[in-house]
Specification:
globular; TAT_signal; seven-stranded mixed sheet; 12 helices; Jelly Rolls; alpha+beta; 24% strand; 2 domains; Nucleotide pyrophosphatase; binds zinc ion
Length: 507
C-alpha cells in the first residue's frame, strides 16, 4: 500500500485511537498527499459515496445542489430497512448491507460489534471486484475506521485512506485526497465514506438546522468529487457512474438503532450510463448498490455469490407491482399517515381473492388478502417481524390475521389468493417460485394448493414454522394430458400472525 498517510488527531473530539493503515505515519499536515494507485484498465468507472445517517426526507429542505442534480439526472429510490431481530438500524449492519449486496441474514452483521460477520462468504464489492477483475484500480476512503478494521469496505482496495471519526476534520481530508486521486490518477472504482451527517444527527437531531447544514457540507464534498471527475482529461472517453447511499436514518430528535420509520429510512441514488434520469422507483433496496457497481462495470454476478441486490435500472415486474397506481390510503389504520397510499383488495389482472369463508368486520385494510407496501404494512405495528420483509419489492400480497383482528370482528380469517391459469401443456412438472415472509402461530394454517384444468385443488405445500424472508419454490408433477394449472395461497387464522407473498413466477 504505497504512500498512504494520515493525520494524528489531537482534538478533543477525536475519541478513537489512531488507526494504523500499514503505511507511513506522517506529521499533521494541512493537506496530506493522496496515495498512489495502479493505473486503471476500465473506461467504465464507478464512484460510490456513503453518507452516514442521511435521512433522505431532509434533503429537500437543504440546499444540496449536488444531490439534487444527481436526483434530476439519475434514478433515486427510497426504501425502509429491516429492524431487529434481523439487525439494528445501525452502521455496522447498514454498511455491510451496502458493501456486500446481501441482507444481514447472510452477511451476519447485526449490530456495531460486527459479531457474526461473514465477509469471507459475502465480501464487500471492492474485494469481489479484486477477485474477479484484479487489474481494476480500486480506492477506498473511510473515517469510521471500523469499516476498515472489520473488513467491511476496504479489503480489495489498492489504496485506502483510513481516518478516525473526527468527521468535521476527516470528511474534508478524504474529499481533498479523493479529489486528487480523481483528477490526477486513473481509478476504476471508488468507495468514499462521510460521517458528519450521522454525528450531527445524533447531537442535534434530524430536524435541526445544523443537520441541514451538515447535509450541505457533505453535498459540497460530493460536488467537489463530481467536478474532479468532469475535470479529468480523459472524461470524454469514460463512462462514469456515481452512486450515493446511506446506512440508516435518524429519529427526529437524533439517534437510531430502533424500528421507527425515520430510523429505517434509506435511499439509493445513481446517475450513469443506462440509468434513467428523474426516475423515482418504489422498488429499490440498499443491497442494490453493489449489484449496480457490478452492472456498470460490465460484470455479471455469479449465482454462487448469493447477491440479494439487482442493478438500480431493473424494475420489479411481478404482477403485484402493477397495482401501485391503485393503492389507497388508510381506512381503519389511523396510525398510518393519511398521505401514505398503501393498500388495495383488487387483485391484479387474471388473479382473484376468494373470501367466501372469511369472517366479517375487522380492520378494513386486512380483511382477506391485501396488496400493500413495506411503507404501509410495516407501519401497522412495529417489532412484530414485519420489518424483516426485506426480500419483498414494491407491492406484495399479505394475509394478516393479527392486524385484521384489531377491530371488532366475527368468524375466522379465511382467505385464498388464486393465481391465473398457467399453460403446462406437454410438461412433466411445473414450479411455482416466490418470496415469502411467514410468521407462524399454532392456530393458523398456510397452504399452497395446485389445481389442474380447473380440477379439485390439492395441497402442494404447507407452512408450520416461521420463514423469515426467503425465496421459495414448489414443484408439482403435471398429470398426463393436463393443459393448465393455477395455484392457491390459502391462509386461515384467528388473531394469529401473517403470510406475505411476492415475486411470484412460474418456471
Ligand atoms: Zn449513528
Amino acid at each position: 500500500m504505497p504512500g498512504i498517510s494520515r493525520r494524528t488527531l489531537l482534538t478533543a473530539g477525536a475519541a478513537t485511537a489512531a488507526v494504523a493503515v500499514g503505511g507511513t505515519l506522517t506529521a499533521p499536515a494541512a493537506r496530506a498527499a493522496a496515495p498512489t494507485l495502479p493505473n486503471g484498465i476500465s473506461k467504465d468507472k464507478v464512484l460510490a459515496v456513503g453518507m452516514d445517517g442521511l435521512r433522505h426526507d431532509r434533503i429537500g429542505a437543504a440546499k444540496a445542489p449536488a444531490l439534487k442534480s444527481l436526483m434530476a439526472n439519475g434514478t433515486y429510490g427510497t426504501s425502509l430497512l429491516y429492524a431487529n431481530p434481523m439487525a439494528a438500524t445501525s452502521s455496522g449492519p447498514g454498511w455491510s448491507t451496502v458493501s456486500t449486496g446481501v441482507w444481514p441474514d447472510k452477511h451476519g452483521v447485526k449490530d456495531n460489534t460486527f459479531a457474526g460477520k461473514n465477509y469471507a462468504r459475502y465480501p464487500g464489492f471492492l474485494a469481489r471486484l479484486k477477485q474477479v477483475r484484479p487489474g481494476l484500480s480500486l480506492f477506498a476512503a473511510v473515517d469510521w475506521p471500523e469499516l476498515d478494521t472489520h473488513g467491511t469496505v476496504t479489503p480489495g482496495a489498492d489504496a485506502k485512506l483510513v481516518y478516525n471519526n473526527d468527521y468535521a476534520v476527516n470528511d474534508k481530508l478524504i474529499t481533498e485526497q479523493t479529489e486528487d486521486v480523481l483528477r490526477n490518477q486513473n481509478p476504476d472504482a471508488l468507495f468514499v465514506y462521510f460521517g458528519q451527517t450521522d454525528e450531527i444527527g445524533h447531537n442535534n437531531g434530524a430536524t435541526s438546522r445544523k443537520y441541514l447544514d451538515a447535509i450541505d457540507v457533505q453535498d459540497g464534498y460530493l460536488g467537489r468529487l463530481l467536478a474532479a471527475i468532469k475535470a479529468r482529461p480523459t472524461y470524454g472517453t469514460e463512462r462514469w457512474t456515481v452512486i450515493v447511499t446511506t446506512d440508516h436514518g435518524h429519529t427526529d430528535g437524533g439517534g437510531h438503532g430502533g424500528s421507527s420509520i425515520e430510523e429505517r429510512r434509506t435511499f439509493v441514488l445513481a446517475q450513469g450510463p443506462g440509468i434513467a434520469a428523474g426516475v423515482r422507483p418504489a422498488d429499490t433496496r440498499p443491497v442494490d448498490v453493489a449489484a449496480t457497481v457490478f452492472h456498470q462495470l460490465g460484470i455479471v454476478p455469479e449465482a454462487s455469490w448469493g447477491l440479494d441486490g439487482r442493478p438500480i435500472q431493473q424494475r420489479s415486474t411481478d404482477p403485484f407491482d402493477s397495482l401501485r397506481s391503485s393503492l389507497s390510503p388508510r381506512v381503519d389504520e389511523t396510525g398510518i399517515p393519511a398521505d401514505v397510499l398503501g393498500f388495495t383488495h383488487t387483485a391484479p389482472s387474471g388473479w382473484s381473492v376468494v373470501n367466501d369463508s372469511m369472517g366479517t368486520g375487522g380492520v378494513t385494510e386486512w380483511r382477506g388478502w391485501s396488496f400493500t407496501t413495506d411503507e404501509f404494512w410495516s407501519r401497522t405495528q412495529p417489532e412484530q417481524y414485519r420489518e424483516l420483509n426485506v426480500r419483498a419489492r414494491g407491492v406484495f400480497a399479505v394475509a394478516d390475521s393479527d392486524e385484521w383482528a384489531d377491530k371488532s370482528f366475527s368468524g375466522r380469517y379465511d382467505s385464498t389468493l388464486v393465481t391465473p391459469a398457467y399453460d403446462v401443456g406437454g410438461r412433466a412438472a411445473v414450479t411455482l417460485a416466490f418470496t415469502t415472509l411467514y410468521r407462524h402461530e399454532g392456530g393458523q394454517t398456510a397452504e399452497i394448493l395446485a389445481s389442474f384444468d380447473g380440477g379439485t385443488p390439492a395441497v402442494a405445500k404447507s407452512y408450520t414454522s416461521d420463514v423469515i424472508s426467503r425465496p421459495q419454490s414448489v414443484t408439482v408433477d403435471v398429470p398426463a394430458g393436463a393443459s393448465s394449472v393455477n395455484f392457491r395461497f390459502r391462509y386461515t387464522g384467528s388473531n394469529d400472525w401473517y403470510w406475505v407473498i411476492d415475486g411470484v413466477e412460474i418456471r
